[in-house]
Amino acid sequence: MVVRGRRRRHGRRPGVEDRWLREADPDRREFHLSLGCAVETLRIAAGRFGLACRVVTPPSGPVVARVEVGPGGNPHRDVALFDRITERYTDHRPFRWTPVPTPVVERVRDEVADFDVSLRLVREERPKRAIAELQAAADRAQMGSEAYRRELGRWIGNGALGDSWPFARVGRAAVTHLNVGGREARRNAALIESAPAVAVLSTADDDRGSRVAAGRAFQRVALVASAAGLAVHPMSQILERPARRETLRGLLDLDARPQHLFRLGFADGSRRHTPRWPAEAVTVDGGATAGEE
């Protein structure tokens, strides 16, 4: 099975490329991370049904990742993770001040190590406060850009956040025409400071293969967290511009390049899923490739 990203053409269903956020993600870092999440989900699902997967990430060319599927998988290895694929969700609410259990931390570290991805788990107040301040500055800068707000508003208007049609339209108008950066900065900074742990995934290199690997690692971390009753919340704004990304790297004294930042902890109350894209919304050609053209 091949999944290729294609630009939208008249009369054609949107492809992966149409979900690239050009203003928020100019270097496609998040685009490649997302493909890595999709690739790992495919690998886990294939393994559950006794199929083995080999993932290839060519260094260049239109194909970002190729998944070769064949017999020989272990259907028992990732059963718990497979069962969480449809349940995993992103939680934007404040987390309880309950430490992440040590066994979960150890499992998460083991998962990311399999991909040559490093994990920095920030639990101390001072560095979390510094990250929160950097997040607030990123929010104000992003929301100060009209092009960024138009892009965000377009996705909100399409219902990407799960709002009903009237609320989605109102949200689109508000985000597009009002600079709500101050409000978002205060809200997201508070979310970071209140979380028991803020996690950063990093890689030695910054090529697209490394980013795909970070996405694969994050998908497994998110599923492990879900299986343990924890929630995750990616917060990407700091990493969306090179200068702030380097500031975070220096702040945490990282040798590697930060690829993904997210909150990890326990949330109270009922879970709320945003809608999943239907399978028919993705352009598919026979084979297992996620790419860009």
UniProtKB/TrEMBL annotation:
The family database entries (Gene3D superfamilies) matched by this protein are listed as:
NADH Oxidase
Q: Which residues form a coiled coil?
A: none
Nitroreductase domain location is 125-265
- Classify the source by domain of life: Archaea
One Pfam family matching this protein: Nitroreductase
**Alphabetical list of InterPro entries matching this protein:** Nitroreductase, Nitroreductase-like
Q: Which SUPFAM superfamilies match?
A: FMN-dependent nitroreductase-like (SSF55469)
Provide the protein name.
Answer: Acg family FMN-binding oxidoreductase
| Source organism of the structure | Halobaculum litoreum
Lineage at the top is: Archaea, Methanobacteriati, Methanobacteriota, Stenosarchaea group, Halobacteria
